[in-house]
Amino acid sequence: MEPAVASDCEDMAGGMIAAKRYRAARRLLMGQEVLTRNGHALLGRAYLGMKDYEPALHHLGVAAEMDPDDLETLIHLARACTASGRPHTAIRMLERVTATRPDHAEACEALAGAYRRDARYADAIQLVKAAEAAEVRTGQLLYEEAMCLHALGEAAGALVVWDKLLDLDGGLAAGWFQSHAAALQVVSLDEALRRLRRAAECHGANGKYWAFLAAYAIFVGDEEEAAAIAAGPLAARPHHSALIDGVRALLPHLSADFRLFGCSGHLLRHAVAAAGQAGLVLEFGVRRGTSTTHIAEAAGQPVHGFDSFEGLPEGWGSQPQGSFTTELELPPVPANVTLHAGWFEDTLAPFLAGHPGPVRFVNIDCDIYSSARTVLTGLADRLRPGSILVFDEYIGNQTWHEHEYKAFQEFVAEHGTRYEYFAACPFTRQVAVRIL
Ligand SMILES: C[S@@+](CC[C@H](N)C(=O)[O-])C[C@H]1O[C@@H](n2cnc3c(N)ncnc32)[C@H](O)[C@@H]1O
């Protein structure tokens, strides 16, 4: 039966949203001739649940404008900003709330998530500690803390927090999945696989967990297991095969000393240590300086970091142009790092003119084809046998073969370069390459 008055309709829509029936809630609310403030707020939340961010921002924005004191709507609006790649806007909104309400659990959760999306991992961890001091402890805050510790390279600390969270909620598929990477780094591959299997067995598990299980099986040569997963749980989920295809593309070039990693910072430090040839240490894609710090600490020499600090110059998959911007703010970095702000197209050639010699190590973390191509073309005559390259986002995402992978494959074909992969981190889609 159709509810006759707005408040009945809104009550029903609220119930549907609580039950995650977002499409049904949207249909119901769209049937209303005129939306009240609460109707806009609910419709915005329904769109947010459907991951349809532009209408979510519109309706939540209208509701927030009609009543700026409605904290719940403001928090949903901030979440929509974060999810749609605008974490800075969310941070500005939420910091105002937590400044006066440090004990507001939902505001703290949303702000920690926005800091994480903005790669401000230390700020997120500090916020979780402050919330704990105000006696606010939630599973979501533990989740954010573990994610941020892992992103900073603190795999052991992250694993401790994951296990606290999994003690509270043993059915949390995402917790088992995320923790497998920390376990791979600091415990063993077997422990990582155990956690992945737990993730895959959880109610509503994501098909990508099976793709990870198959990918690790391929790396260790267990083709029987990989085939069983492909013919079984992955058969109905072909869109999860990107990671498997990427791993297969690496196989012909695996080195004898190849190692699997679960954490970006650990892979970077290993790759820098493997770079024995004297020369330049470079990074393309600095953002907030997370990877830069690992490289600088491991390198023991000057490091040069290049970034526009304006984000991606073009869209990349579902990430719009400008994603990962720091709004031109340069991050704090160790004393041996020099930052070169600007587009690679403008900064690389003048830098090379003033810095002769080969490349010892380069981290290419700029995601898109054109940027990776600019870097590789610019460095072509500086890469020598023994030079080490790390690529982030090399394999595993849906468009992996169109970006950094494609740029490197074109480069090796054009220059007749021989190379091998001596490390990979499927979780962060990184590979480390040695030029032969
Ligand atoms: C994923 S982020 C780098 C993340 C960083 N390595 C870390 O550890 O967090 C990619 C960065 O590449 C930069 N970028 C991409 N293409 C660029 C180009 N052509 N010129 C300058 N910067 C670029 C973006 O500004 C962005 O900060």
UniProtKB/TrEMBL annotation:
InterPro entries: SAM-dependent_MTases_sf, TPR-like_helical_dom_sf, TPR_rpt, TylF_MeTrfase. Gene3D superfamilies: Tetratricopeptide repeat domain, Vaccinia Virus protein VP39. Keywords: TPR repeat. TPR repeats lie at residues 37-70. It holds the Pfam family TPR_19. It comes from Skermanella aerolata. PANTHER family: MACROCIN O-METHYLTRANSFERASE (PTHR40036:SF1). This is Uncharacterized protein.
